[in-house]
Amino acid sequence: MKPDALLYPAPKGLYCPIGDFYIDPVQPVERALITHGHSDHARAGHGHVLATRETLDIMRIRYGDDFCGTSQAISLGEPLVVNGVDVGFHPAGHVLGSAQISVRANGVRIVASGDYKRRRDPTCAGFEPVACDVFITEATFGLPVFHHPDDRAETRKLLTSLAQFPERTHVVGAYALGKAQRVIALLREEEYHQPIFIHGALQRLCDYYQSQGIDLGALRPATLAADEKQDFKGTIVIGPPAAFADRWSRRFSDPIASFASGWMLIRQRAKQRGVELPLIISDHCDWAELTATITEIAPAEVWVTHGREEALVRWCELKGIAARPLHLVGYDDEGE
Ligand SMILES: [Zn+2]
Question: Can you name one GO molecular function term for this protein (predicted)?
């Protein structure tokens, strides 16, 4: 059987005709398998959703109890057959609950990795390579220029700045799911034990991470009523990127604008966002990690999706690995 008889890119997302299901569909479908809770992969409105318990919980937190018709939780590594297709979920190391999804039928196995990263993350299970015939990889940072530095060193930059400017408020932009909790956990690992102030949009997800045994330490709301005069001098305040657009961060005294993202490697992006203290912390692989992963898994074929597809396809071809871009639409280039 050719691999694309098992899984192929359709307008609504990756479709498995044998199992009659989609992986991370971008429009409502009858049966969806979801890799992780980021909004470009996990959308509301499907008839039936199969995902890890954490991903289902996260979707419920974000969309409400009626986020889908019916849902089924699957554990990492648990074998399951869906309409004759062997399905497995395996850790992707991206955010809490994130999984790669393997599908197998007629002796062909394809792994759709969703979003993934290879470096250690104190807030989620680490990526596990899964042997397969076709490996579907993201390419958010799929250019050789992308190199993510050590995230502990990036975290220390924030603490160094905090020590240098004790009168100022360090306001850090971080995506609400995954990045914010990881930045907090990294700060705790660097022995920063002061309360960290969080924007209201992060509260429920931070509470959820804590309920799952991920210790984020003392968190306090950073919400200020108009007549309130709370002093945030010398503190770290974390908010979602959207909060910076609505000038939320300017409420704080003499703020230093920081932002935690893999894109902070590009100075121009940091400048455009008015970021004084860019922190290059990513929940995606950099180029070296993408290529090392493909080398390690050694699939017969690589399909590349969302991001800089062409460079990674070219790299595979130069290494003698069959590869093609999938041109899936609907996944956010910013990569939450
Ligand atoms: Zn993601």
Answer: ligase activity
Q: Is the pLDDT of residue 118 over 60?
A: yes
Give the Å distance between the CA of 92 and the centre of ligand 1. Answer: 10
Range of the domain at 188: 151-279
Task: Say if residues 137 and 305 touch (Cβ distance below 8 Å).
Answer: yes
Q: Cα of 141 to ligand 1 centre, how many Å?
A: 13
Return d(Cα 327, Cα 292) in angstroms, integer.
23
pLDDT in tens, 221-237: 997 666 565 678 999 99
Three-state DSSP class for residue 167: coil
Going from the C-alpha of 136 to that of each of 151, 300, 301, the distances in angstroms are: 26, 11, 9
Q: Ligand 1 centroid to 36 CA: how many Å?
A: 7
Does 156 share its domain with 263?
Answer: yes
Task: Report which DSSP code applies to 94.
Answer: S
Rounded CA separation 246/42 (Å): 25
CA 87 / ligand 1 centre spacing (Å): 21
Give residue 112 CA to ligand 1 midpoint distance, Å: 13
pLDDT in tens, 235-244: 999 999 888 7
